[in-house]
Design a protein that fits this description.
about 240 residues; alpha/beta; Rossmann fold; four-stranded parallel sheet; three-stranded mixed sheet; disordered N terminus
């Protein structure tokens, strides 16, 4: 196309394809920046469709769940609610990249992943909402149990509420006898013997993982999660 400008004439318009390309570039950059702010690095291009839907891009999973939770009203104050939603999105993302101890060869569809909530915590209402959201590869069943309840052997993951803080050593001692993954919002939870916890770093929520405890419980966590988490050890351990 001849773009030469004649005296007194208006500049020639760019072709439509060029205009679209210039408009779309900032939006793509903004999307990459938003994902990076959560500590995830998404690939620049989608090379192929996921096989069987088993491995979604971490940034996509995180942001989709956070968006879905944003519409849940009246569960907490604005600031606490936002932090609870971020932590819930982390948990949802983590569960899709964690594998429980294998008890038998897998045949047919994967059984549901069962998560039990013990105690009270601002995150608990948002966790209950996750049971309505589709999880990659398997269903997610969530139940609330009394603090002193005996766990059903079918439970895979236990979320411990902040109300259990003062009795945490006794509770963990009982749970360590089972092949369960423990997650909590209790301060220094992984350092006190739990599996997965959270920490605030420069205003952002980060995962903390006690990898030794995770392995002792027989669980495996994908390297994608470990890349964006802080690996810690139990206090007093060598």
């Amino acid at each position: 196309m001849d773009l030469e400008r004649r005296p007194g004439s208006r500049p020639a318009a760019l072709p439509a394809s060029d205009r679209c390309e210039r408009r779309s570039a900032p939006s793509r950059a903004a999307g990459r920046s938003e994902a990076a702010s959560q500590g995830f690095r998404a690939p620049a291009r989608r090379r192929s469709a996921d096989r069987g839907g088993r491995h979604r891009r971490p940034a996509v999973v995180f942001l989709v769940v956070l968006t879905l939770l944003a519409g849940r009203p009246g569960l907490a104050t604005a600031e606490d609610s936002l932090e609870a939603k971020v932590k819930t999105a982390y948990i949802f993302h983590l569960l899709q990249f964690a594998r429980e101890p294998a008890t038998a060869p897998a045949e047919g569809p994967a059984p549901p992943l069962r998560l039990a909530i013990l105690g009270d915590d601002p995150i608990a209402p948002f966790l209950e909402q996750l049971a309505r959201e589709p999880m990659t590869g398997r269903a997610l069943h969530i139940s609330r149990l009394p603090e002193n309840a005996d766990l059903d052997p079918s439970i895979h993951v236990v979320f411990l509420g902040r109300s259990l803080d003062k009795r945490l050593p006794q509770v963990l001692s009982r749970l360590h006898e089972l092949p369960v993954l423990t997650i909590s919002d209790i301060p220094l939870f992984p350092q006190r013997g739990g599996s997965i916890g959270f920490v605030k770093d420069r205003g952002k929520v980060r995962l903390q993982i006690n990898l030794d405890r995770v392995k002792r419980q027989g669980w495996h966590i994908h390297a994608k999660v470990l890349e964006v988490a802080r690996v810690v050890t139990t206090e007093g351990s060598p």
